[in-house]
Amino acid sequence: MVRYGANNIKLSPSYLNKKEKLVDNLIGKYSRKISGKVDLNDLATRFSFEVISNILLDNSCEEMYDDFVSLANSATIVKLLVPTPFSTPEIGRIHERIISMKSTFYTELLELFDNKPKLAAKAVSFIMLAGFETASTGIICAVHRLAFDQDLQEKVRTDQTLIPKLVSLSLFANPPLMQNFNMLTTSNIEIGDGIVLPKNTRVNIFINAVHNYPDFSMDNNADSFCTFSGGQRRCVGEGLARIEIRAFIKLMLNFRFKTDDRLVPNSESAITAKPERIFIGVF
One Pfam family from the UniProt entry (predicted)? Predict the structure, then answer.
């Protein structure tokens, strides 16, 4: 079985501190890919994929990028998440290619493929969603904010200690997930004003509805920040996502860039809020 607990330890703050230098090292590699007119969606998605493969597999799996992208599109994810008979060539190819990788995480996942293929497929799709689509969406929205606002871009370039704050504000304004996955109450819960959620009630949290603070700040409204959920169900990959977005912003601040494209949600994206393709001009 896949032992998620062991991998949660891998994503602890102490582990991520060691991996942050590895992520920063990608800046040099990706700097060489940036010039002229840049497809921000493609660049951010490739960057996010390489970070995930380095963190979980301890090596780059750039040659598998196209396979992972085909799996990570929202339509495929939705198909994998519903309880239907499972068999796709995409998963088969990923299955075979993962065999050659020496990684405890994926070795355990392969055992699950052999015994419970449908459950394994859902696990793969969840990894794609939680560690790949969401992070790249966060990157795109944060960089778009800088590309669209030249004054803000120059301010952050001059004082890069503002980057963590920019990341939080961007994740608040444009949360990658449109809603948290539903939860089940285990007891009667009073949420104020005499409103009681009975035991065994399924609750969906619509993040954009909660994030309805025009003057939001992490100092004053931290309890309303639910991009990564909260409590025991808080996203274990939050630290990694923040590292990815910070690193990509540092990468882009080596250049001056702009866009006239606005953030328009992709109508084909059923789960994440990834926008339609955005191009930025680098000068």
Answer: p450
- Taking CA atoms, 269 is separated from 13, 33, 98, 180, in Å, by 31, 27, 27, 15
When the pLDDT of each residue in the chain is averaged and rounded to a whole number, the result is 74
Residue 177's contacts (CB-CB under 8 Å, 6 or more residues apart) are 134, 207, 227, 271, 272, 273
Instruction: Give the domains, in start order, of the chain with CATH numbers.
Output: 4-176+234-282 (1.10.630.10), 178-226 (no CATH)
Query: Which ranges of the chain does DSSP label H, i.e. alpha helix?
Result: 4-10, 13-31, 40-57, 65-72, 74-81, 89-98, 104-115, 117-128, 134-148, 150-158, 163-173, 207-210, 218-221, 238-252
In Å, how far from its chain's centre is CA 75?
Answer: 17
With beta carbons less than 8 A apart as the criterion, state whether 10 and 104 touch: no
The residue type at 158: T
Phi then psi dihedrals of residue 183, to 5 deg = -120, 160
Higher pLDDT, 256 or 93: 256
pLDDT at residue number 231: 67
pLDDT band for position 262 (cuts 50, 70, 90):
confident
Task: Check whether 235 is labelled as a binding-site residue.
Answer: yes
222-239 confidence digits (pLDDT tens): 667 777 777 666 777 788
pLDDT of residue 281: 95
**Beta carbons of 258 and 279 less than 8 angstroms apart:** no
| pLDDT at residue 154 in the model | 97
How far apart (Å, rounded) are the C-alpha atoms in residues 192 and 135? 34
Contact 94, 67 (CB under 8 A): yes
Q: Is the pTM of this model over 0.90?
A: no
